[in-house]
Amino acid sequence: MPAIITPNKTDQERKRRLEDHDGGSGRRPPTDKRTGGGGDGDNWNDRSHGRRGPYERLHRYRMGIFFALASDLMFFVAIVSTFFVNQSASHLNVYNHFVDTWVPTVIPPILWLNTVVLLISSGTIEMARRTMFHETDVMDEWLGLGKPITRRALPWLSATIVLGFLFLAGQWIAWRQLASQHVFFRTNQSSHFFYLITGVHAVHLFIGIAALIAAFTGLYVSRQLENRQILVDSTAWYWHAMGLLWLFLFTLLAFFQ
Amino acid sequence: MTSIRSKNFFKTYIATTDHRTIGIQYLVLALISVAIGTLLSLLMRIHLVWPTWPLSHPILPEDYLAIVTIHGTIMLFFVLTTAPQAGFGNLILPAQIGARSMAFPVLNASSFWLTATALLILLSSTFVPGGAAISGWTAYPPLSAVPGAGPGQGLGMDLWLVSIALFAIATTASSINTLTTIIRNRCHGMTWERLPLTVWGWFTAAILSLIAFSVVLAAILLLLCDRHAGTSFFVPNGDLVSGVIHHGGDGSPLLWLHLFWFFGHPEVYIAILPGLGLTSMLLANFSHRKVFAYRTMITTTLLIGFLGILLWGHHMFVAGLNPFVSSAFSISTTAIALPASAKVLSWLATIWRSKPQYTTAMLFSLGFVSLFVTGGLTGPILAQPILDEYLHNTFFVVAHFHLIMAMAGVFALYAATYYWFPLITATTKHPGRLMSEPLGHLHFWLTLIGAYAVFLPMHLTGLAGEPRHYAQLTGIPGPGGSLSPTGLLLAQTIPLNLHITYAAIFLATAQLLFLFNLFRSLRKGQFATSNPWRATTLEWHPAMNPFPPIPASDIPVITVHRAPCHYESTANGDTSLPQWTSDPVSQISIEDTTNAKPE
Ligand code: HEM
Ligand SMILES: [Cu+2]
Questions:
Q1: In this predicted model, what pLDDT tens digit does every residue of B261-285 receive, in sequence order?
Q2: Beta-strand (E) ranges in chain A?
Q3: What is the dihedral of CA B257, B263, B267, B269, to 10 degrees?
Q4: Domain spans in chain A, listed from the N-terminal domain onward
C-alpha cells in the first residue's frame, strides 16, 4: 500500500498560447472581438474584472436578468401546474355521485387584440435595443457629437410604453367584461386561475413599464452611453420574456381550459 | 463631531454595499437567530419532561406548536440558509475567485435588508392576537389555509407566510448575485476546474435557490388567496375544520405538499452544500493533501444538487401518493446515496495516513464527516416507503434531520468561523486575529459529545413510537380516567427523554464557551500572519487579506496558476503552493517527483 493514495500529478499549468489570445482558461476567446487593444497578446480575459472592455458590465447585467427570468419562469411553472391539477380534480358528493366542478372560463375576445399589441411592443423595444448598439452612432457619441443614440431610441421606447399601457388597458377591459357576465375572481376554480394568471402577468408588466420609464429617463439624464445601453438592453430582454410568457399563458387560457 | 461619527457608522455598517460587511451583517443576523432558536429548543425539551416547570402548569399544546414552528423556521431559514450561503458566501466567495466585488452590490444590500425585515416579521408574529403560527415549518393545509383552524392560524399565519415570501424574494436575489459573480467575475486563470470546492458548493446551492424559492413563493401566493380571496386551491370541498364545513372548489392539500416539498427538499441541500465543499477544502488543507478525486467531487456536488430536485416525494410516502410514485421517489432518494458516499470516500481518502494538523477548524470538519455519516445512514432507511410508514412523524425523523442537517450544518459553520476568523477581524489598522485554540478544542469535544448525546437517543424514542409535535408525553388520559395506550407507550420513553433533555442543556451550555471565545478573540485574540493555515486558496492572497484595506482599483492583477490544495513535501517539512504563486521551480519539482522511479 502506498503511503499516499492521493495522486500528486492531477493538474499542471496549462500551456498558454499568447499569440492565439489563449488566456489559459481552456477556452479560447474569438481573436477578433475580445482583444484588449494593447498589442500582442493583450486579452480582456487577462485583466481583473472591472477592466474587461466596453461590454463587461452590459454582459453582467444581462446575465443577472436572465437568471431572474429563469426563477420567474419557475414561479409560473408552479402556478400552471396547479392549474392542471385543479382542473382534473373532482369529488364524490353525499350520494356518491362523481362531481366535476370545473367550469371553463370563456376568454373575452379582446385578449386576441391584446396579444397582438404585446407582440408589436416586443418589436418596437427590439428596435430600441438595436439602435443602442449602432456602430456609427456609438462612434459619434464617443467623439462627442451629440447624443444620436438617445435621439433614435426615444421614439421606439415611447412607442413601447404606449403599447404596454394599451395592453394593460385591454386586460382591464377583459376583466370588466368578465365581471359584467358575473364571472369574478371567486366565482369558480377556473375563474380563480383566469384572474390569477392574468393578474400576476399584469403585475409583471407594470414592473416592465416602470423599467421602461426608468430607461426613458435614463436616456435623457445619463451621459454615459454604457448606462443607457444597460438600461434599455435589460428592459428589452425582460419585456421579450414577458411577451413570450404571455403567449404561453394565453394559449393555456384560450385552448386548454 | 459625534454626528459625523454616527453618520460614518451608518455608512460603514448599515447602508453599505461592501460585500464583506454585508457578509458580516448576515452572520450577525444568523447568530441572533440561532440564539433565539436554541432557547426555544431548550424550552421544548424542558417542557417535554418537566411539564410543570418553570410555570406551575403545562403550557397549552398550541403554544408548544408555536414554539416548534418558530424554532424550525428560524433555524432552517434564518440560520442554515443565510449563514453559509449569504454570510460566508459574501465574506469569502469574491476573494476566493479573485474578484473585487460581487456582481450587483446594491442588490446584495437590498437582499440583506429584506431578509432582516422577514426575520422581524416572523418574530413579531409571536405578539399578535392568537400568537405565532402553529403548523410547523411546512405549513400544511387545511390547517394553514383556514384561519379558524387554531389560535395561531389567523394573523400569526399570515405574518409567517409574508415573512417566508419576503425571505424567498431576498434569497432569489442573492442567488442571482452569487451565480453572476461566479460566472463573470473570476480572475484570470481561475478556470471552472480550479474553482475551490467551496465555490462549487455555493454555486450549486445558488442554482437550487433559484429554482426552489420561486416555487414556494407561488405556493404562498396561492395559499394567501385561499385564506383571503375566497379561492380553494388547497382545501377540498366538504372539508370540516373547527366545526365549519368548507364549500368551494375541489382543492387539494396534497398539491401544497408537492409544491412545498419541491422547494423544501432542495432547501435542506441549500443548507448543507456549502458545508460539503468547505469540508473537502479544510480536510485537504490541514492534512496537506490534494482533495482526492477533485473532478469527481465537482461532479458529485452538481449531482447531489440535481438529484435533490427530483426526490421531494419522499416526504409524502404516507400522504396518499400513488404507490408507484412512491417507488419512483424511493429510487431517486436511494440514488442520492451514491454521490453522497463518493464524497465521504473522498474525505477519507484525502486524510488517509496523512498527519493532519488538528486545529479546531480541522476538528469541526472531521466532526462534520462523522455527523454526515451517522445522519446519512438513516436516510436510506427512511427512503423505504414501507419503513417510513411507521417512522414518519416520529422522533426517528427528528434525529435524522438534526444529525445530518442541523448538527452537520452547525459544525460546518463552526469550522468556517474558526478558520476564517482572521479574515473577519482584519482591519486597515491591524492584521486579523485568531480564535483561542485551546478553548476551541474544548468547545469542539463538548459539542461533539453533546450533539450525539442529544440526537442518537432520539432514534430509539422514535422507534418506540414517540411522535413529533406532541406537547405532552405524560398523563394522556384514556377512557375511564385510566392512562390511554398512547399514554402508556409514551410513558416508557420518559427516562430516555430525560436523558435527552439533560444532554440538550449540556449542549446548549457548551456553546457559551464559543460565544466567550468569539467575543474575547474579537478584541484580544492573537494576531495572525497573512496566511496562518498555509492555505492555497485566494482569500488568503496578501492583497486580499486584510481585505477591504486597499481601494479595489489598487488591487494588483491576480492570476491563478493551478488548482487549489497543492502541497509539496521537502526535506524541511511541507510547503504549500498557493493558487496565485507562479513558481516554475516548484512546478518542475512536481514533475520530477512523479516521473522518478520509486526506490
Ligand atoms: C440544541 C440543539 C437543538 C435541539 C435540542 C433541538 C430540538 C428540537 C425539538 C425538540 C424539535 C421538535 C420536535 C417535535 O416536537 O416534533 C425540533 C424541531 C426542529 N428542529 Fe431542532 N433542535 C436543535 C437544533 C436545531 C438546528 C440547529 C436546526 C437547524 C436547521 C433545527 C431544525 C429543526 C427543524 C427544521 C425542526 C422541525 C420543525 C417543524 O417540524 O416545523 N434544530 N428541534
Ligand atoms: Cu427530503
A1: 999 999 999 999 999 999 999 999 9
A2: 91-92, 98-99
A3: 90
A4: 54-255
| CB pairs A-B closer than 8 Å | 170
- Nearest atom (ligand 1) to Cα of B42: 5
Give which of A82, A83, A227 to mutate to test B binding, by max B Cβ within 10 Å: A82
Q: Whose CA is nearest to atom 27 of ligand 1?
A: B406
Q: How many Å apart are CA A87 and CA A66, to the nearest integer?
A: 31
Residue B327: CB atoms within 10 Å: 13
Ligand 1 centroid to Cα of residue B402, in Å, is 7
Q: Give me the residue from B173, B557, B590 closest to A48, CB to CB.
A: B557
Nearest CB to B350 within list A6, A10, A77: A6
Give the Cα separation of B189 and B187 in Å (integer): 6
Q: Looking at chain A, which residue has its C-alpha nearest residue B259?
A: A78
A contacts of B553 (beta carbons < 8 Å): 50
CB atoms within 10 A of CB B11: 10
ipTM of the complex model: 0.91
The answer to whether residue B246 sits within a structural domain is yes
For the domain that residue B256 is a member of, what is the CATH number?
1.20.210.10
Query: Which 3 state secondary structure label does DSSP give B431?
Result: coil
Minimum Cα–Cα distance from B175: chain A residue: A67
In a domain, B3, yes or no: no
Between B356 and B238, the higher pLDDT residue: B356
- pTM as predicted: 0.90
Average pLDDT over residues B165-170: 98
| Neighbour tally for A226: CB within 10 Å | 13
Q: Is the pLDDT of residue B593 over 70?
A: no
Query: Is pLDDT above 80 for A209?
Result: yes
Q: Is residue B8 part of a domain?
A: no
Pairing of the two strands B244-245 and A91-92:
unpaired
Task: Determine the atom of ligand 1 nearest the C-alpha atom of B393.
Answer: 16
Decide whether any atom of ligand 1 lies within 6 Å of the B508 Cβ. Answer: yes
Among the atoms of ligand 1, which is closest to the Cα of residue B48?
10
Residue numbers in A near B227 (CB within 8 A):
none
Residue of B nearest to A26 (CA): B191
Nearest residue CA, atom 25 of ligand 1?
B406
Number of domains in chain B: 1
Output the pLDDT for position B57. Answer: 82
- Domain made up of A54-255: CATH architecture: Up-down Bundle (1.20)
Residue B502 has pLDDT above 50, yes or no: yes
Q: Is residue B332 part of a domain?
A: yes
Ligand 1, pocket-test mutation among B45, B82, B398, most atoms within 8 A of CB: B398
Q: pLDDT at residue B342 above 60?
A: yes
Q: Which domain holds residue B46?
A: 16-596
B251/A23 CB distance under 8 A: no
pLDDT digits (tens, 9 = 90+) for B313-341: 999 999 988 889 999 999 999 999 999 99
**For residue A174, how many C-alpha atoms fall within 13 Å in the half-sphere facing its CB?**
26
Lowest mean pLDDT across B188-192, B356-360, B543-547: B543-547
Spell out the residues 6+ positions from residue B413 whose beta carbon is closer than 8 angstroms to its own: B30, B83, B84, B275
